[in-house]
Batch of 4 targets.
Target 1
Amino acid sequence: MGIRLGDNQYGKAEVRLVHVQRDTDVHQIKDVNVTSQLRGDLEEVHTVGDNSKCLPTDTQKNTVYAKAREWGGVGAIEDFALRLARHFVDEHEYVYGARQEIEEYSWDRIATSKGPHDHAFSRRGAETRTTVVNKDGDKEWVVSGFEGLTVLKSTGSEFHGYPRTRYTTLAETDDRILATDVTARWRYVGTDHDFDKAYASVRALCLELFAETHSLALQQTLYAMGTAVLEAHPEIAEIRFSMPNNHHFLVDLSAFGLDNPNEVFFAADRPYGKIEATVERDDAPAPGDAWKAIPGFI
């Protein structure tokens, strides 16, 4: 039996970087979390401990900070990730591939009686913008998205007509709360895009379609969101969603002599339905390694 080294990569995980743009009295902040991983000629570091082609993970960390200064900030996280990947692959002959993953945390200016404050901010909840850039030689892939976008509609949602077995207890309904935490990832065709503009548009479309679609199932809402994104953005090949169904159950108040006309609910945190699907173009180019090392998605 022979033994050999399989696929591998290494790097520095979760490099926290906050960049403050101070060109004017109105400051801009960029709060990101960068994970850098490299692939290359790493056989001997694994098999015999030869580190001559192993760029230290600490060097990768320092590169993130230095480039934020040299490049005048972070900008769109997709552009920053692409530039990092190109730096590592192009500047080091023993590195042939790079994976750069970035999460961005949004901050809003604190509102005051005089308007938005110049240099004071509040964190915008749990929602996080994401991107993963994979580079292998000259080939580059960008997958972007968001997670933790919590949404709820108090009506305009039904669920009925499903198969019933002796284990079915769920009552059919033509009026229910629909709530979920949207995680979305989309794959770009090419890398020359206005990523900030595209991100804002995709997010807005997902919110609009969640609100405006009269839902007969969370799957139907998911598909409507994905369809709207692809129709508006020819530069996006596919979009993948993972959306829990955050159940809200009507509380039976009859024991207290009270009715409950869809007003009082119990919000259950578990167990929950988990809906996942990909909406894609039938003529989209093959994904290659775009989804490489992006766990949790079908």
Target 2
Amino acid sequence: MSDTAAPQMSGEVREALEQRRPVVALESTIIAHGLPRPRNLRVAEELEEVVRAEGAVPATIAVLDGRAHIGLDKAQLDRVADDDSVRKLGHRDLAPALAAGASGATTVSATAFLAARAGLRVFATGGLGGVHREWTETQDESADLGLLARTRITVVCAGVKSILDVPATLQRLETLGVGVLGYGTGNFPGFYLSSSGEPVDWTVRTPDEVAAVMRAQDALAGPPAALIVANPVPEAEQLDPALHDRILAEALDACGKRGITGQGVTPFLLDYLARETEGASLEANLAAVRGNVRLAARIAGAWVRA
């Protein structure tokens, strides 16, 4: 990899890694494309502060002017939040973006790839992508799954987006050899909901237990797959389940009637949910992200102490 293609770490992140202090990777898509302005910047700063409050260093990841950055300063964070030209980059988009000198916010797949490439081991996000409904007809599956099957990183999330086919996604993760741990729960979280109704095979209850699984992964020296720590949003902060089910059914019906397919499905459904729940789905999403970021910082701390 050339010097210009190698990820550029901030001084704070580099020093933390050299001193074996905890570092948490954060995606930037939620900043550039997931929230309205100016709240997006406030949330980005809040999430970094949550990491710091737990004694870890935040490493928000983005591509700016053809260079991948691991850890952003204030001006760079402002730019990701405010610049309309910032694109949305999955891991397959990284090479063209770097070659073209483009700027982009990183999705789960791109963030996980760049974080692992830089030597980070823990990554916090909201919800993963997965297998889409009507997969047998569309063959639509998130690039997150394939990337996580070959990337050794621990991802703290609130499950997968509830607009997806959750049972099929869990089956796909099993096929790909990606480990799934329920954090304090025997059920896989449902992103906006504390539970998707689907069971998990393994439950952990402390950051130290997660770190022990990470150490065992390394000791086994098997395929470099990720480890998913599925952390449910607190019940008090979840979207009302009955409201969620009703609005999601309406959203899926509207999507079908309008003939929306492919990459247009997910943003349509998420926008529909946010609008028709009067922002309640967004608040549940943010509650989940905050909890995931806090837990990821604690896991990163347990990992460096191991």
Target 3
Amino acid sequence: MDYSPLRTALADVVAIPVTPYDAEGAVDRAAYRALLRRLLDGGVKAVTPNGNTGEFYALTLEERRLVTELTVEEAAGRAAVLVGVGHDATTAVEAARHARAAGADMVMVHQPVHPYVAQDGWIDYHRTIAEAVPDLGVVPYLRNPLIEGAAIARLGEACPNVIGVKYAVHDATRFAAVARDAGLDRFVWVAGLAELYAPSYWAVGATGFTSGLANVAPNVSLNMLGALRAGDYPGAMKVWEQIRRFEDLRAERQSANNVTVVKEALAAMGLCRRDVRAPSKPLPEPRRAEVAAIVEGWSV
């Protein structure tokens, strides 16, 4: 297969849509579609339903399938759809096959949720998923700093459809080494820690980055992308300064409010409810006001 269109889609802003809920706590289909349209109209070319900002681990199997289907329907070819899959290998394979049947382009494989991860086992887990959907692009989501570039290279040799890596280790030096050991040009390297880490990761090999902030201000994320593509690091850092406090709030206490802050911003804009599911928690009132003030300053 020619995976070049999918590789191009990954080398961009990869937005992670939130999953809004209605007053009864169910997925709000209308709000979800409206938020997706806003991303697409804002110029986003790749979306990841069932990502962490979409509360993947708080959704039921049926809800994850619903979100997948809604995303493919709404995207309608306007953006590449990269569906988050995970849990045990059998569940991940079933989700990947459902994504394929729904019309998705790629799957992003969440980090294996297991206390004991061997490098060879990591390869086997991803290979099982990739081989089940050879016609889809596959992107491992790597948060484990102990997975070496050589392991990623071996996975790529076995599975041509593993075309990218979402790298989310808080260490740009480690990323630079892993990317080169795995194959800098073999994979599309996506900075998986979003805008605050994008400039440093871009400098050493990333060509795309993920974004939860894009739910709120897609133009801000795309402004950073444009600056990075132009090699305008001062320009990129101006965007960095603009969003720093917002992203710092999301990152507090090991990212406890990653989703909460984004939904609070959307609620302040009247786009969806602020509700999140446990173990996340809505912001206390003083922080709500701060988030609203930040977003108002962006003029979105």
Target 4
Amino acid sequence: MKDILLIALFAFLGATTAGLLGALVLRLLRHRSLVVSLTVVAGVAVTAMFAGTLTVCWAMFLSSHDLYVVTTVVAMAAVVSLATAVLLGRWVAARSRELTLAARSFGDGGTFAAPAGQPTAELAALSRELAATSAKLDSSRERERALETSRRELVAWISHDLRTPLAGLRAMAEALEDGMAPDSGRYLRQMRTEVERMNGMVGDLFELSRIHAGSLTLAPARISLYDLVDDALAGAGPLARERGVRLVGDRIEEVPVEVDGKEMSRVLGNLLINAIRRTPADGTVALSAHRSDGGVVLSVTDGCGGIPEEDLPRVFDTGWRGSHARTPPAGAGLGLAIVRGIVEAHAGRAEVRNVQGGCCFSVTLPAV
């Protein structure tokens, strides 16, 4: 038993010495290729075994012939181990280079394509993560392109919408100044109307900028859904009567919601005004509110005839109007973007779908 313990001690000391030297070499070469690291690891394993074996042989006072035989066997094992480590390292390094090139391609704006061949489990997991990241980047690029297109359309349309009333105001002001206005009262009323329209556009731009900047401050309070809807219907009533549109508010459940009353009134007002303007005379705009499994749902249904399916994803984009017309009824394309921003600030969501004869805008808010 004592001899066995001594043999184990000598073998441990020899292997430990080789292991410490190997750890030092690995630290010095830690920035080199994986082939070098694997070769060092294999070399450390063989050297540790060799050192332990020689130490034990020396302690046992073996003959020179026996020591030569043991050394030859260990040397052959070392050659095979080092060759295997080099081959494995070269294979892993080649797969890593292929993966690096594939990652560089989607980093430069392309799409990641996993390299052919059978990689290791770790490289396969890295490939899956890179593929998922590539998909997210593609989606982000697509959103960025859509936002850039919306911003360009918004700038172009806002410039036109502001320039048109300014030109009219200038012409009417010059006519009044020169005494050429046949009906100065009508001119003044028209100027006031144009100023109010411009003020509304500037107000929408300011509201949208606050939403995009994340500086929209909410003051939520617990209010009745019935009161919120009733105020919105009362505000949109004059426009509906002017355009000959029936405004219906039925199926309103008296459920409480915790929202910013002023901002949510703006949401419903924008939806109702948009629906009334898009609905022909003698048409109907209906507002309903009810509780569902997903929260509290407010819906505005109009008679616009529906929205093309390809345009449905863009309805809430900034600057979208649904047509290329730039007449005042078309608006600046900000109302629905403001609706989505305010609703999302309330942790809700805004959606639109086509129904028979028109479309339905739905706002879902968290239930109290």
